[in-house]
Structures are given as structure tokens and as C-alpha cells.
Amino acid sequence: NAGVTQTPKFQVLKTGQSMTLQCAQDMNHNSMYWYRQDPGMGLRLIYYSASEGTTDKGEVPNGYNVSRLNKREFSLRLESAAPSQTSVYFCASSDSSYAGLAFFGQGTRLTVV
Amino acid sequence: GEDVEQSLFLSVREGDSSVINCTYTDSSSTYLYWYKQEPGAGLQLLTYIFSNMDMKQDQRLTVLLNKKDKHLSLRIADTQTGDSAIYFCAGSNSGYALNFGKGTSLLVTP
Predict the structure, then answer these.
(1) In chain B, which residues have their Cβ closer than 8 Å to the Cβ of A43?
(2) Phi-psi region for residue B27, left (φ > 0), alpha (ψ -120 to 50) or beta?
(3) What are phi and psi of A107, to 5 degrees?
(4) pLDDT tens, A40-97?
């Protein structure tokens, strides 16, 4: 079972470059989330999508945009990458409005130089 | 939002019990979760407890919730080397906002 799949797993960007992180889930979940994890920190919510067609800001949305392409896919875009966006990014999905009852992807390790 | 605090490191011997502690500031936290993160992997939901419960047991895992002290603990019985990982506590008082602690690194030694 694939669960939540993120691509790519690793990426190095130069400051100012743009890129899109892809996430897909095969569990028919309504809700999807993007988090970032910085060293020594817990996860912080960037954006979430409660259902197909809706997106909302989380705790740290600045510098990011998201698209809920369909029920399966939720992408995160960095329009102009900055070194402060160096982090590990996790996508998650859940079948309910309880964000904690979520399945997580393996993460994308992004370095901005 | 709320602050969620955890001790950063715990070392136990294989076969002993591990107790990982967490405190939270928001008394309206309704949902509390424990996750496990192994190196290079995403988070795995281990267990959860709702605020109307004091205790939940699931095989080797026991969660205790003290609402008065806003304290949550995760006990792992008969800890194995495969339990070595980072454990995150997270709380929520609404559906979509989760507040994570910084994680407790558990090291299990033979």
C-alpha cells in the first residue's frame, strides 16, 4: 500500500528559484496537509486542505502557495526560494476533521543555497 | 495556539519501561496524540487520547492524561531496540490545527 507519496525526496535549490513539491494519497482521504520540520523543532503547519477545492493557511504560510488539484493530490509551491525555507517538508492526509489522525509521507528534504 | 513541551532525550535499557512526558498550556486541548519518527522517515501515529479520557492502553503503550496538571505521558513497556526513535506529542483544540512538541529522542541500549 502506497499511502502518502511525496516527490522528490531530496532537492537542492538556489536562492530565488522556484519549485513544486508533489503529494498524492491513495486512501480517499478528504483532508490533506503540508508541514515543515526544522532541526530540534516539532512540525509546523504551512497549509491544509479540508476537502477538495478548499485550502487554508496554517501557522507558517508566508513564501508558499498550494493547490489541491483533486482529491488525491495536494502540491506545495515555493515561488522564490530562500535559505530560511531549508527544511524537511511533510505531506499528510486524514479521513476526518481530526488533523492528528493522519498518515504522513516520507518527507522531502529541501536545501536552499 | 498552545505550547507543547517535552524533555529532549531519554535513554533506557532494553526490557525496561520508558516514560515520555509532555505538558501543554491550553486547557481546552481536546485531542492529544503521540507520534513516532524513525530516522529518515515520516511521522507515524502511535496512539491518541481525547480529553474526556484519563488513560488509554494499546498493547505495550499506555497513555496517561492529567487534565488538572495539563500533563500527558506515554509509557512503553518492555522497551526494545526497535523503539529507538523520536517521539512527538501533539495537541489540538480544533480540527485542523495541531501543535507539536519538539520531540523526545529515545535511545534503547542493549
Answers:
(1) 43, 88, 90, 98, 100
(2) alpha
(3) 100, 155
(4) 888 999 999 999 999 999 999 999 999 998 999 999 999 999 999 999 999 999 987 7
- Give the closest-approach CA distance of A85 to chain B in angstroms: 18
Distance CA B13, CA A109 (A): 32
d(CA A76, CA A51): 16
CB atoms within 10 A of CB A39: 8
**Residue B3 phi/psi, 5° resolution?**
-95, 140
d(CA B49, CA B93): 13
User: pLDDT tens track of chain B, all 110 residues?
Assistant: 568 899 899 999 999 999 999 998 877 777 899 999 998 888 999 999 988 889 999 999 999 999 889 899 999 999 999 999 999 999 887 667 788 999 999 999 99
Residues of B with a Cβ under 8 Å from any A Cβ are 1, 4, 31, 33, 40-45, 48, 88, 90, 92, 95-103
Handedness of CA A97, B21, B72, B25 (dihedral sign): negative
CA distance B19 to B7: 11
Nearest to B90 by CA among B39, B43, B40: B43
Residue A15 grid coordinates: 536562492
